[in-house]
Amino acid sequence: MFPLTFQTEHVANMKDEFVVLIKNFINRNMGKTCADDYVKSHSYCAMVFTGLDCRLSGLVLVRVIKEHFDRQVHELSSLCVDLEFRSGGIGSQLLQYVNRNLPENDISQLYIDSGPQHDELLRFYKNNGMKELYSNTRETCLVSRVMRRKSVVHFCGLCFFSVLSIVMLCAILY
């Protein structure tokens, strides 16, 4: 396997040449045409580079949507991997990288348009931990909530508090 390097860039801080690089990468690897404005409408771009020459091999654009209860939705779009590197696990690792770097309790969300690759993409995202929120004739919406494991200290403290509460309740009842 080749070395992978992950990087996140805020779109607002990107130079125009870098925006064009991302736009061309999407156009070439997704077979669609997008404009510079499409890239600039996102909050940040997570990228994966392969090899010692650090070749751009995959990316996902992310738009941050403010929500309530101090939680944000990170809408993922244009997750794509260079045609040469597909089926090598790079897309899965990129998706894991994005979700690992989201703040706790934030949500990642994406939409799959109906079309010839819909079922294949749906399987890919479900295999990578996304859950189907809804589906209709136009699109399928998938979400993943970021939950961090609580530390052992937090768990032990919770157990101690529970045992102490039970002991005190028993003492009161007897």
Short description:
The chain is built from 5 helices and 7 strands; from the N terminus they run E-H-H-E-E-E-H-E-H-E-E-H. It has helices spanning 16-30, 36-40, 90-100, 118-127, 152-173; strands at 4-10, 44-50, 55-66, 72-81, 107-113, 131-135, 139-145. It has a 7-stranded mixed sheet with strand order 1-2-3-4-5-7-6, with helices on both faces.
Provide a descriptive summary of the structure in words.
The protein is α+β, with helices and mostly antiparallel strands and 174 residues long. 36% of the residues lie in helices and 32% in strands. It is built from 5 helices and 7 strands. It has helices at residues 16-30, 36-40, 90-100, 118-127, 152-173, and strands at residues 4-10, 44-50, 55-66, 72-81, 107-113, 131-135, 139-145. A 7-stranded mixed beta sheet has the order 1-2-3-4-5-7-6, sandwiched between helices. A hairpin with a 3-residue loop joins β6 and β7. The longest helix is centred in the C-terminal third of the chain and has 22 residues, at 152-173. The protein is globular and about 75 Å long.
